[in-house]
Amino acid sequence: MPPTETVLVTGATGYIAQHCLLQLLQQGYRVRGTLRNPAREAALRQALRQHVDADDRLELVVADLEADTGWAEATRGCTHLLHTASPVMSSEPKDAAELIRPALEGTQRVLSAAAAAGIHRIVLTSSVAAISAGYPAEKRTFAEADWSNEAGPIGAYACSKTLAERAAWDFVRQHPEIELSTINPVYVIGPSLDGHFSPSADIVRLQLQRAYPGVPRLGFPLVDVRDVASAHVAALNTPAAAGKRFICNTGFLWMKEIGQILNDEFASQGYRIPLFPIPDFAMRLMGLVDGTVRLQLPQLGKTIDYSTQLTRQVLQWEPRPLRDSIIDTGRQLITSGSL
Ligand code: NAP
Hints:
Elements: E1 6-10, H1 15-26, E2 30-35, H2 41-49, E3 58-62, H3 71-75, E4 80-83, H4 97-117, E5 121-125, E6 141-142, H5 155-174, E7 179-185, E8 187-189, H6 202-208, E9 215-216, E10 219-224, H7 225-237, E11 245-248, E12 251-254, H8 255-266, E13 277-278, H9 280-289, H10 291-296, E14 305-306, H11 309-315, H12 322-335
Parallel strand pairs: 1-2, 1-4, 2-3, 4-5, 5-7, 6-14, 7-11, 8-10, 9-13
Antiparallel strand pairs: 10-12
Helix pairs in contact: 1-7, 4-5, 6-8, 8-12
């Protein structure tokens, strides 16, 4: 992609999107970002200015996934699109449509505007929630050919990501002039450019806040936000990436291991995390009243793995060690007073 071309990034205020903006600007591209709240533009520009001098190559416009207004203007003159905007919540919503409608209809709306504007290369931020949800928790490795089982107990977020990604692939089948790649990250952690984290960073935040009396037998596949952004930019730029899904996963860590890394680094500053095991029966009791805990119960004591062979091969992707991501997240949460 020649740097003279303009990349549209939807959801520019997002945790992942800001790192995508930064890397695109650092590589010399012109970028147009969409946001739904114009009051956040100044803070976003200020955050980016700490790392790159490129105010003149960044334009911000207002558009909401739930309305047609603004998308024709947003896409006009762009050749490439990074569609990252989609609602992310830390707990199950009362009404699943709150997540599904903007994700699915928003993707259809953005892709239609992109096609009308002549955008020919799209990278969609999907998730492993579109790959591995809705199956019994058994030891297996998921890969790009897998799709979540919408008929299983998958939760509103996984449903929103699965339906939105399927809709994107259906759309490009009807528009063969457009090339699509998807990036499918696991739980994303790492520093935030403007101090707003995604709910996924709660994996670190809640432990530092000592929100639990100990650690359940739960773990998470994790990846750093900077490595997720570099995969997006590589997918835009790599011809062989067209038509492919790319998993971004650095590895699986138990909550106890995450807590230990945080203790090693921050216990001397007064952040000592209790690492007593929380028994499975206590988690099951909590699951009776908490829908978010209930969704995690099948994962108790189980690991989950995702292959990144394709991502490493095609995108030349090499993620940083998770220890660095956990410490960088923890340090920012502590020093910014966000705990
Ligand atoms: P985030 O910081 O909450 O970003 C979500 C972005 O979507 C925000 O910019 C948000 O705008 C925007 N958005 C939500 N609803 C919208 C609407 N109706 N209209 C326009 N924009 C809307 O979370 P994130 O982690 O960076 O998520 C970015 C993408 O990565 C999402 O597609 C998410 O599903 C995907 N993802 C995230 C993870 C993870 O662990 N964090 C893992 C896999 C995939 P506001 O800033 O105005 O709220």
